[in-house]
Design brief:
D-amino Acid Aminotransferase, Chain A, domain 1; D-amino Acid Aminotransferase, Chain A, domain 2; 7 helices; five-stranded antiparallel β-sheet
Length: 271
């Protein structure tokens, strides 16, 4: 870990090898941007965590407890990253979950990624990944702890000039980036992949969609193949740490300028 860790409210320590998060990826996580000693978009992250707990049958810790522990972890941090991992807790061997689970919660602090301001200003290049995302509506939208598909996708490239990989489902339709959500503009409309069958419903993705609609921009969630990006006038990526980053190149396929919609969103995000 890059910084301090708190487990069930206590500084330091370790998680048991019988924890189902370690054994099966049986849990959820949220990643917060820290600004001025506070985790950003707290309510959005908490709503997604609550939905995940309901779907997986993991008891949600008291929100007041999570907020208190998050603030304590962020104390003295002007800018950084806070990660919350919530697992079902310990259980015996086998897939059957315990009847009365006692969740494990872990907060950890991390530095901001390097070069982030430059990427926001100049934009980044992306590639298309071969690794598909399996279609499973039961897990769609959730930020669960099993990220093996993303791990395999991220192994596909080592070129430092490629910032992100775009992932499709098993039917070849765009879903998201390995670590981001994807948007593109066609004329007056902004499009983003539907996430009802797989993918992570990002908190900043929701913020962007709400903000654009407040501005009167038509936002559509679509099922589209990668070739749809060839018709785009601009494209950008989002997540809770990077905020909004322009895409300026799809490797060997298309270049884009940094668009006005992207810049307007960046200004709103920074304010």
């Amino acid at each position: 870990m890059a910084g301090p860790v708190w487990i069930d409210g206590r500084r330091g320590g370790s998680v048991s090898v019988c924890d189902r998060g370690f054994q099966y990826g049986d849990g959820l996580f949220e990643t917060f941007l820290i600004r001025d000693q506070r985790p950003c978009l707290w309510e959005g992250h908490l709503a997604r965590l609550r939905l995940g707990c309901e779907r997986l049958g993991i008891p949600l810790p008291a929100p007041a407890t999570l907020w208190r522990e998050a603030l304590a972890a962020c104390r003295g941090v002007a800018a950084g990253v806070l990660k919350l991992q919530l697992t079902r807790g310990c259980g015996g061997r086998g897939y059957a979950p315990p009847a009365d689970p006692r969740p494990t919660r872990v907060f950890s602090l991390h530095p901001l990624p390097t070069g982030l301001e430059e990427r926001r200003r100049l934009g980044v290049a992306v590639r298309l990944c071969r690794t598909p995302l399996g279609i499973n509506p039961a897990l769609a939208g959730l930020k669960h702890c099993n990220r093996l598909e993303q791990v395999l996708a991220r192994r596909e490239w080592s070129d430092p000039d490629i910032y992100e990989g775009l992932m499709c489902d098993t039917e070849g339709r765009l879903v998201e980036g390995v670590m981001t959500n994807l948007f593109w503009r066609e004329g007056e409309r902004v499009l983003t992949p539907r996430l009802d069958r797989c993918g992570v419903a990002g908190v900043v993705r929701r913020w962007v969609m709400d903000r654009l609609r407040d501005w009167g921009v038509q936002v559509l969630e679509v099922r589209a193949h990668p070739q749809a990006l060839l018709q785009a006038q601009e494209a950008f990526l989002t997540n809770s740490v990077i905020g909004i980053v322009p895409v300026i190149r799809w490797q060997d396929a298309r270049d884009w300028p940094v668009g006005e919609t992207t810049r307007r969103l960046q200004m709103a995000w920074s304010s």
